[in-house]
Amino acid sequence: MPVSEPKKVLNRLKRARGQLDAVISAIENGAPCEEIITQLSAAHSAVRRTAFVVVAGAMRDCTIDPNHSEEDLARLEKLFLSLS
């Protein structure tokens, strides 16, 4: 099943990539730990939110399409719970 709203997902991932680049730069430039942790936290949150968007889209698509099986829904639920 393709990703719902790929443009939205890609924008979120690109933002996360930018935050990871900031973490790398901060470490390379000897930034204080507080700054590094702040950037890491932002990158972590961005990736988590992106994962939720992907799983939520898949769950929405599966619940709208009556042809999806209980197994499909169980698999999506497992994916969703893996994010916690």
Report Rg.
17 Å
Largest sheet: none
Amino- and carboxy-terminal Cα gap: 22 Å
Total tally of structural domains:
1
Family: Belongs to the CsoR family.
GO molecular function: DNA binding; metal ion binding
Keywords: Copper
InterPro entries: Metal_Tscrpt_repr, Metal_Tscrpt_repr_sf
Notes on the structure:
This protein is an all-alpha fold and 84 residues long. The chain has helices spanning 6-28, 33-64, 70-82. Helix 2 runs antiparallel to helix 3. The longest helix is centred in the middle third of the chain and has 32 residues, at 33-64. It is elongated and about 55 Å long. The mean pLDDT is 84. Keywords: Copper. One of its GO terms (molecular function) is DNA binding. Belongs to the CsoR family. One of its GO terms (biological process) is negative regulation of DNA-templated transcription.
Short description:
With 84 residues, the chain is mostly helical. It contains 3 helices and no strands.
